[in-house]
Amino acid sequence: MESKDLMEILEELTKNKYEKYYAKSGEIDKLLSGKNLSKEDLLLLINILVNDDIFAWLDFISSKIEDIAEDNSLFVNLISSIIDKVKNDLSQGNFIRALISLGENKPELGIKIYDEIIKHSRKEQVILYAGLILGGVGRKQPEKIIPYLKKMLLSDKDFFIDENIKIASVRCTRVMIEKKDKLDNEDFYFDLLKVVSDSNNSESIKFEAINLNFDMFKFNKDICYNNLVSLSSLNSSDNLKYQIADRLWIWGLKDFDYEFKLIEKLAESSNQNVLSRIAYYLAKNNQHNKEKTFNIFKEWIKRDKEFYVRELDYMLEEMGKADFEYYFKKIIDWIKIEEDFKIIYSVSRLVDHLVGKNQSMKDKLLELNELFSKLLK
Question: Where are the chain's structural domains?
């Protein structure tokens, strides 16, 4: 294609970016249909769009990854540029899926691209994303990837492996098992899980281990639960505890017995961010274990942590919505035997939130406030 024709396409795209083409890959495909773009033309176009406004064109770019993929520096540099701009952004989902699909649909090329990245890229994030391509290959052809994972993660300790490559290998593993209901090589995967969950690993590896344990929980609940307990132990960093609490809130384990056992342990933390995530979890799920929810709330008050939990008001409102009568009675029974005036006072300030906007429970609140008044005299 002549350069003037390509410039006309770019002019149309940028001129009507927001009105017609923003995040609409189908409309861009219509514009390009019949233009006879070569792979080189498409690669050049995408490079320009990446540097123009990545989020306007990301869906379209992602849809063309397989079409322009090559095991050379041009493609690797393009992938690197995209990653620099979208890493950690929630809008990158289609791009991540495109990298996985590339490995799935073009496994030989996917392996070559992965090797090209590992050999020549010095950027940590690019290496980590390369694990997604390899994971796509492993979905369709695990026999090609399992020997590689054994070398990267189960090799002799004297054999040095770059930490970023190890992390990429864990991400590769997560992609491989994501859609499975049963593991064909279960012993291998749990040997790998044991290695990455080791308490002697770096924090970066432990972060990946947390995610892998959540993914593999459905295959062996006890092993993964015990690993998560270890990763959230008293000696663990607050960052690790926060990640587990966050994953419980967002993903869950699909088993509330195990979830609440972990939440109980994490609730012993004094870190504001950890406790806030637990409050979000309990606001969402308190109805599944009201007794443990109340006990956690009670312990936070006794430990004088109510001011550490920014979302405590919201948590109480959701508890009231779930079962006001239950929590109201638990508070009454507790306060009647509590001797610490400071605790009684703290609860009296918070209990309004249990009622929330439920006007029918206002009489109950008056009853409780009368009790507080008597106890605090």
Answer: 252-377
